[in-house]
Design brief:
alpha+beta; 162 residues; three-stranded antiparallel β-sheet; single chain
């Protein structure tokens, strides 16, 4: 599994280069690059004018340097991102989705129902509480340290305490 290049918010719009000030709202996004998914930040003005092609995005505020970071990614946003990754077959994205499923299970947004085998792959059968339709997730059999690393990287990308 390749390492991801995770960028923390640097207070600069990736598109225009303009500085994003503390307290200013901006868009954080995951962009698909040759190196995999990478985080990019965009000022509101650039976002509205250019509508950059992104894989997933969220709106947030740039925290002051001494301000404690707040969780700004809702569980609904995590679920939407999880669902968006469903058709992906790239091993990095499959691993990302699996770890995201673990996070959502910990948050009680997904429940484990069982496991099945399909073409030599272990598939976890999950469900969203209240929904009847199952959700399937490929278990990529990550080592514990890989799960920890990916969880940390997901938290860094989304600026969330996972």
């Amino acid at each position: 599994m390749a390492d991801w290049e995770i960028n923390r918010p640097l207070g600069q719009c990736c598109g225009s280069g303009r500085r994003i000030e503390s307290g200013e709202e901006y868009y954080g996004a995951l962009v698909e690059t040759e190196q995999g998914l990478q985080r990019r930040d965009f000022s509101n003005e650039y976002w509205e004018r250019e509508k950059p092609p992104v894989y997933c995005f969220w709106k947030t505020k740039l925290a002051a340097p001494n301000e404690k970071k707040k969780l700004f990614i809702s569980d609904d946003m995590l679920m939407a991102f999880f669902e968006r990754l469903a058709p992906e077959t790239d091993p990095e994205k499959v691993s990302f989705r699996f770890v995201l499923a673990l996070v959502l299970m910990r948050k009680r947004r997904l429940k484990y129902d069982g496991t099945k085998m399909d073409a030599g792959r272990e598939i976890w059968c999950l469900r969203v509480p209240g929904d009847k339709d199952p959700v399937e997730v490929v278990n990529p059999h990550l080592a514990e340290e890989q799960v920890e690393t990916l969880t940390s990287q997901i938290g860094q990308i989304l600026q969330a305490d996972l």
